[in-house]
Amino acid sequence: MRNGIVRGFKHALSFQQVQLRAAAPIQARRWQSTSPSTPQSPIPQRRWSTPLAETIAKAIEVTGPVSIASYMRQCLTSPDGGYYTTARPSSDQFGRKGDFITSPEISQVFGELVGVWFLTEWIGQGRPASGVQFMEVGPGRGTMMSDILRTVAQFKSFEQAIEAVWLVEAGDGLRKQQCALLCGEEAEMEQMEEEGKPTFWQAKSKYGNGIPIRWVEDVALLPKNNERDAKMPFIIAHEFFDALPIYTFESVAAAPEQEKTQLLDKSGRPMVRQDPASKVPQWRELLVTPTRPSLDLFSTSKEGTVEPKQPEADFHLTFAKASNPNSLVIPERPRYQQLKQQPGSRVEVSPESYRYIQDFAKRIGGDVSRQKPAGAALIIDYGPLDTIPVNSFRGIKEHKIVSPFSFAGQADISADVDFGALADAALEGSEGVEVHGPVEQGAWLTQLGVQDRAARLMKGAEEDKRADIEAGWKRLVEGGLKGMGKAYKVMAILPENGGKRRPVGFGGSVTP
Ligand code: SAH
Fold it and tell me: What is the pLDDT of residue 300?
């Protein structure tokens, strides 16, 4: 009986009309009168998995479907419910109780070897006695920077050369956690000002003679270096680029011959002219839009009322109906040209990542305002060695892969990093840099001596900790389902040197 009524209801109104009118009281009465099992209840409200999902859905009602990039930005860093920017009641995002675990949280050896790698670069670039800056984007709990600084402290002249550590972190709660770890539980961040404007937060670290730790929210707020003031920036991005927003495009076949214009040639005969644009495949953007509750499937709620079945995810992807400014500009780089010619190909592109990597490249390679290239950047993340990522957008909650379109703001969402695109962008950003890698994390750590370092750590550890240390370093190096050694890649940006000095882990040796 109920099914019959609903079918009738559906026939009477188009799907869209139902959606549009659902909120109006008159519609609610009509729904009730035809549903014997829920005589008094109004049309049940659409249930969203999180308050942020509802906010995004309401915005889409006004603006129309949005880019994946805009959805990602909201989910991860919205001041109002974003995953990294909202304080969480019990634990943070990381570790067993959180949603995911990262290499520096698995083993201290990871951060220590990153510190050793920077040491080899400092030695290889002439051991300057001052002007070294450490920079980390997306430091999470601050664990890796703490492991780096502890390692560097064993090499006094390197430690003394460090003038400041800069951390780029969007989340206020995470900035405070980083401060507690690097500067002590009692430490307080001070808001610094320049010409009356707030510039960064600062606190004194536990390392060196109180090396200052400074926080900004975006790479654009880092200080610009100038030529009078030579700096050597050592930059690390670990599991950061996968959190930067991506756009997705699919190549669609050329439109059928339709754009014919009736023009007459000189002799008065009709001339057929085809729009040249319709002959070549085009990119179409995939956009995020809310799913609709099914009106012919029902589920029974906890209270015993029968409601239209809620979809599994709050949002899904739909094609833009035509080219839009994003699809006309963002994938029009040489890297994507070949795929564009093969209809059905998809690409994920992150222009936001170029902004970060080009900032690193300019700092290291110099731009018009600097002369001598110096420093190094390490990018460590998951993604393919040289192909363009496709269909990699995913959600992670409580250590399980979930739809990226559920639990907006309460699940981590990320996408594979396109290392090839990062390398192209870095080389475009400054003529003064060269790029090494990416190489697999397992191979990189092995060349840096991970096994020896772990063995030394195990020797000094208590009996019950040894098995954990061993399992930890092996997980960082090994492949397979749980291993991180193959899925994660390492790429380095260095001052341009004609490829003469290969860095450690990329074919170079530890002694310069
Ligand atoms: N590097 C850490 C944490 C990785 S999680 C580790 O490996 O354990 C991603 C980190 O990047 C978090 O600290 C998050 O708050 C930060 N982050 C994500 N998007 C950001 C953005 N757009 N701007 C600044 N920080 C961001």
Answer: 67
